[in-house]
Amino acid sequence: MPKKYVVHLSGEEREQLENIVSKGGANVRQIRRAHTLLLSDAGKTDEEIANLLHITTVTVAETRKYWCADRLSRNLVDRPKPGRKRKMDGKQEAFLVALACSDAPEGREHWPLRMLPDKLLELGVIDAPVSYETVRDRLQKNELKPWLKQQWCIPTGGADFVWRMEDVLDLYAEPFKPCLPVVCFDERPCILRADTRPSLPMKPGRRTRQDYEYERRGTCNLFMFFQPLAGWRQTIVTAQRRKEDFAECMRELVNVHFPYAEKIRVVLDNLNTRSPSSLYEAFEPAEARRILNKLELHFTPKHGSWLNMVEIELPVLVNQCLKQRNPDRYTLQRESTAWETIRNAQKATVNWRFGVTDARVKLERLYPKIQS
Predict the structure, then answer these.
(1) Which of 10, 165, 177, 351 is the most buried (most CB within 10 A)?
(2) CB 95 within 8 A of CB 89
């Protein structure tokens, strides 16, 4: 039976197809169609072409048909296909986004994906039910994940916030002065845990295996001093975080680490123990006054502890050292001391690039509005 669609290529068409095959740059479908048309023009049957190109005879026949009907462009590219009709139009999608961003129903922390389609149907936004997968796809397109929540310290702003912030930022902008060191101070709680079974060491092709069960042995507290411009830090492990522990840290800072400094500028946040009165509760008045005369305390704003550079150094300690199980305070102090020794030898520091000028531009909303 004679073919209904017979391919007869002109010299220009043959040259164009040979360029597609030989020069590269085209996708697989274009190259396969070019081969099919060239072989068909050479007199090969559909079965022979299918065997040579490892395709079906139906594909060969369809390629000839589309070429002869001029439905394929000269670059052998398919025309755009309309695809399926969208289940939700732009207005319905906008309503979905607004619903997902609204308060969750009672008894739910957030809007579950499987409840949103029913709610849209109940409100009459859509006429027919849609799957929760359609809802998930529309929310993902708008980068919305109702089941995730990010915790953040939201400052209230105002004059008290900005003067404390600019006070700390001005301190960071000063050049290094050995007689006037700037030291950041903070602490974090630590859980003491001991293994109940020995771990299996790492082997080629197998990770270290640690039993999920452990013995909890209470908690302790880890203080840290951090001098960014010198690349120095010091950790102190205590049983608790009391006013007396804070006072002892300040005395060690004055007597041991900076005995010859004129003033030690200490950046710290507003915990209830961080007060000059703590030294009077721990020491005799003369001793407390002597220590305070060597200190110059700079408090970060409330909800502004991110201005304390030690808040950047503490996560480094956690990620590099404290993720392992430490059964007691002695082990925790030994591990943290080994870590700080390496960091101090490297002179590791923080590249702080946020100043008063940046704050007045980026955090303009936190500054009080002056009435003319």
Answers:
(1) 165
(2) no
